[in-house]
Amino acid sequence: MSDVWSLDPRTGRRVQLVAASTSVSRADAAAEAAMGVAGELVRSGRAARALLLRRIAAVVEQRGEKLLEVADRETALGSHRLTGELARTAGQLRLFADVVEDGSYQEAVVTAARTDVEPPVPDLRRMLVPLGPVAVFGAGNFPFAFSVLGGDTTAALAAGCPVVVKCHPGHPETSVLMLEAWRQAAAETGAPEDAVQLVFGTDAGRRLVEHPRIRAVCFTGSLAVGRELHHLAAGRPDPIPFYGELAGVNPLIVTPGAAQQRAEEIGRGAAASFTLNGGQFCTKPGLLFVPAGPDGDRLVAAAAAHVAEMTPVVMLTAQTRRTYQAGLEALLSHPRVTAVARVADPASGRSDPDYEGGCLATAALLEVSLSDLDRSMLRECFGPAAIVVRYESASRMIDGLAGLEGALAAAVHSTEDETELTAAITEAVLPKVGRVVYNGYPTGVAVTAAMTHGGPWPAASNALHSSVGPSAIRRFLRPVTYQNAPQGVVPEELRDRISSRR
């Protein structure tokens, strides 16, 4: 087994030994323990689970100072960003507590028996029930909101499903601190401690996906790893759902009218969006469709000026930086791609042994004509880079949108006078994305009932679901119908006191 170290991406140095990688046998034990408490979690009832979720939120907030300190040291995301993320994490815990208390997520439906029709209709009572233990893979770019007690874990617990979390190697100490917060909340509410567990290492993660006790898998990360885990989940003797939020290139489309009216504003805004937190948001705009001509030139110049003024950013991990650099170099080597703005690589020529190749990276703005856009430019380059795609006419731009792959979001900048064009762009991108943003930027996801954070492949492995918002609970539930069942057998929500019948 290998050691799990907490690293500082600002220096590349090891800071603390956190744990040893989890053995396969220990991963097996975690899955079995999760199954062992699954019934208890369900039987505790919705009121108890709502209380638990609210208590987790309170404990996380109480421990906030230490959590923020360690998370910033492990991710270099900065106090402001992480403070907002911690608040989001507590907020979504409380939101799901409200969802659980309300109970409508269970979709309880009762059809009364009828003997006056042919054929007769039996007494039918249907509702959604928990799938069972869930494996959650923590995300590197969201150490709170998509990690140990993040949205996937929260939705699973709300549904009544225990969780085994595979810790992300980029923030192991933060993950351990979040697990401690869970244990405190569980002890204070009487919840089973094994309803949330943590494992470390690639082998343990793979084993969770294959373990027969695990009934669903959530993963946020790269397309390559997501595809591997998807195949493992589908290749089991009993295939299980794999909910992956993977990789996509989110388009931002600027119409001729918008470029004429707001070129500099949109250019600066787009650059700020795709470089935010080192471009390490899955919702960053990676393709900027900009009209050819003077208005588009002004927009690109404003974006290039923003990029040129940036200092090097610290990426989440050295591996994240290497992957970004490889993707950027591949784009730059394309004969049709032009670098509009790029700062020299800060790692070039360094010999500092503590730097270890470093986690520093620089932003880049590239450009290509729409006619030269090809599939090699449609792969996600996770980091502070974007490609400007110059188009000669709106009709050709709309035709070009048809060739895009699945993405989480698209942004459309247009004017009030371009209603028909805006509608045509919307029609073109709607089959490709889960969210369309108008006159704004896709970075930033509100945790509400109306949010969709998902999309067609490769943005997500299942376009039917969102990983953000109350609807995320649906991933961990399945429908069951009780036919002519005794009152003492059916869940409380389906007993005769329920007045809503169909």
TrEMBL record:
Domain of life: Bacteria
An MF annotation (GO) of this entry: oxidoreductase activity, acting on the aldehyde or oxo group of donors, NAD or NADP as acceptor
Key words of the record: Oxidoreductase
Keyword Oxidoreductase: yes
Domain Aldehyde dehydrogenase: 7-455
Ranges in a coiled coil: none
Gene3D superfamilies: Aldehyde Dehydrogenase, Chain A, domain 1, Aldehyde Dehydrogenase, Chain A, domain 2
Protein name (Swiss-Prot/TrEMBL): Aldehyde dehydrogenase
Gene source species: Acrocarpospora macrocephala
